[in-house]
Specification:
2 domains; five-stranded antiparallel beta sheet
Length: 278
């Protein structure tokens, strides 16, 4: 079957949904997130009232399922560790114990970010001639800034790496106020900003344009919960700034509670993401 007409949807230069007519009079619909998360596109044959889901090949489905399990599990565990570190800082002695818990949690966030990027890199692509998803050769890396799924997951992964700088610096002892703000607080703010931008692109992808409410879409809930976590992380980072004049934080309670609740959002998002598999 050959395509004879195609309609693209999305935002700006990004395409998130393609609809095309097949030579037999039917239609096929490719959507960015379902294709890379579940290996699915939708086909409606001529004369049929209900669409059917067409799945990618077994190799691609197995690959997506494994990558999804890695990313989902890493974010669920990483979020749980971040919440534990924040609880230790708020209710316990904090200090080195909380910093090490944060650091280990950050490693899981790194794994989750890279797993998400690998999903985008190795997602099956729509075949121009058959209305099906075509398998791609495995790759550890690609550069595709014109794809919104790649850009969103890439920014997420870079954000986790920047958080790693923040968490590693927090283990250092004897830092001055200026050094704390430069080595710990500044990377924290950059990481939070990258998470927010990544989350915005993810919302654009799942909504096929301007972000809105899609309560019946599991993908939307995952993105929305994670974006709420990013906002809470940013609030915590703003409150974690050390005043040069006094050497004290802007508000330690907001910093700890913002981190704790934001981390629980990412942990919940990881659990939900585990259900979004082929």
């Amino acid at each position: 079957m050959s395509r004879i007409e195609r309609t693209a949807e999305g935002a700006g230069p990004f395409t998130t949904r393609l609809t095309w007519r097949l030579s037999d009079g039917g239609t096929a619909v490719w959507e960015s997130r379902p294709a890379r998360k579940r290996g699915l596109l939708t086909v409606r044959a001529a004369g049929e009232s209900e669409p059917r889901s067409r799945r990618a090949d077994i190799a691609s489905v197995g690959r997506l399922r494994r990558l999804n399990a890695v990313a989902a599990g890493a974010f669920a565990v990483g979020g749980g560790l971040f919440a534990t570190g924040a609880a230790v800082a708020q209710f316990g002695t904090g200090g080195a114990t909380g910093a090490w818990i944060y650091f280990v949690g950050g490693l899981f966030f790194n794994a989750g970010g890279y797993g998400s990027l690998l999903q985008a890199v190795n997602a099956p692509r729509q075949d121009d001639g058959t209305g099906a998803l075509a398998t791609r050769h495995w790759r550890w890396w690609s550069y595709e800034p014109g794809r919104i799924d790649w850009l969103s997951t890439f920014l997420l992964f870079v954000g986790t790496l920047v958080f790693g700088i923040n968490l590693l610096s927090s283990l250092l002892q004897g830092l001055s106020v200026q050094q704390v703000n430069r080595l710990v607080w500044a990377p924290d703010m950059v990481g939070c900003t990258l998470f927010l931008v990544s989350g915005h692109f993810a919302l654009v992808e799942v909504c096929h344009g301007r972000p809105g409410l899609r309560p019946r879409d599991l993908g939307w809930w995952i993105v929305a919960v994670n974006q709420l976590g990013s906002v809470l992380f940013l609030v915590a980072a703003l409150a974690d700034f050390t005043r040069p004049a006094t050497g004290s934080l802007v508000n330690v309670d907001i910093a700890n509670w913002g981190t704790l609740t934001g981390a629980l959002c990412f942990s919940a998002g990881g659990v939900l993401q585990y259900c979004e598999h082929p």
